[in-house]
Structure formats: structure tokens, C-alpha cells
Amino acid sequence: METYSEARASVAGVDCRFVQDNHSFSVAVGTVRGLHFQRPPYAQAKLVRCLRGSIMDYAVDVRSGSPTFGHWVSAKLTSSGGEQLFVPIGFAHGFVTLEPDVEVAYKVSAPYSPDCDDGVIWNDPTIGINWPLPAVGAVVSDKDEQLPTLSAFASPFDYDGRPLGLLAQT
């Protein structure tokens, strides 16, 4: 199976070079990761896919001056379907696991930098994501529970004229 083609991605509007691959493993159903991004100069675009199980994947527009600031898009990514979601720079990214023992892989356009690591809290009511959670609720890391709300966030990203629409590939 071909999981990435620079030529096909370019035709679909993906105009970045990926420099690192990351792998995430989550045991429990309802594990929420996000909403994450990296600040410049190590801002990252991401190409996300699910290797085992399934997730609901989200991207939130956090570009200052964007007419869709705070709006989000989502896509269900499954290991059986091979779907992928491209998340451009200027968007916070997060997902929730829909089944146990989920593995997620994502390509990024800049290396990880702890000094540039940032995000907004996953359950911010002004963003209003309706996370598909199990009855027991979300499993969230302490780090992710401490992220600021969108209203307390000063965006380092400027609106570049590109619309909210993100690329969902199959």
C-alpha cells in the first residue's frame, strides 16, 4: 500500500515537505489528544492516518484574522479505510480514540521543539467540538488539561487567505 506520494499530495494542494514521522499509541477508548500545534519557527503541518483502530480527527483554525477563527473540521480515520487528514500550519490538531489500542501515525513539516509546543484546551465551549466520548468520559493527559482556552490564546499565526477546507485523502 502506498501511504504517501509527494506528486499526488501536490496535486491536492499539499505544498509542504515532511521532515519527521511520529507514532502515537492509546490504550483506552475515549483517549483525547490535543488540541496541539507548534509555534513558529517550528510550526508544523501534519498528515495524519490511523494504523490500528479508528479515531475522530479534528483541526481547529487558530489563525489570527481568519474569518473561520475557532471553527473546526473533522474526519473519521480508520485503519481499514486508509483515510488521511492534512492539517495545515495555523490549525490546532486533536483526536479521540473510538476503540481500544489505537495507533496513529503522522508526518510533520518541522521537527519537534519543546519550546514551541503549545495548544488550546480540548473541551473549550467556544470551539464547541462534540467529542464522541464513551459514557465514562474522556481520558486526557494532565498536560492537555492545563492548556488555555481559545479566548486566552494569542495566536502566532496570521490568516494567509486560504479557506478552512482541509484535505481529507483516501
Can you walk through the features of this model?
This protein has 170 residues and is mainly beta. The protein has a single domain, classed as Sandwich (Jelly Rolls). It is built from two helices and eleven strands, in the order H-E-E-E-E-E-E-E-E-E-E-H-E. The strands form two sheets. Strands 2, 4, 5, 7, 9 and 10 form a six-stranded mixed beta sheet that branches. Strands 1-8-3-6-11 form a five-stranded antiparallel beta sheet, with no helix packed on it. The protein is globular, with a radius of gyration of 15 Å. The model has no long low-confidence stretch (mean pLDDT 93).
List keywords for this structure.
Jelly Rolls, 170 residues, five-stranded antiparallel β-sheet, single chain, mainly beta
Q: In a nutshell, what does this entry contain?
A:
The protein has 170 residues and is mostly beta strands. It is built from two helices and eleven strands; from the N terminus they run H-E-E-E-E-E-E-E-E-E-E-H-E.
Radius of gyration: 15 Å
| Count of separate DSSP helical elements | 2
Run of helices and strands: HEEEEEEEEEEHE
| Termini gap | 12 Å
Strand elements, count: 11
What is the fourth-level CATH superfamily?
Answer: Jelly Rolls
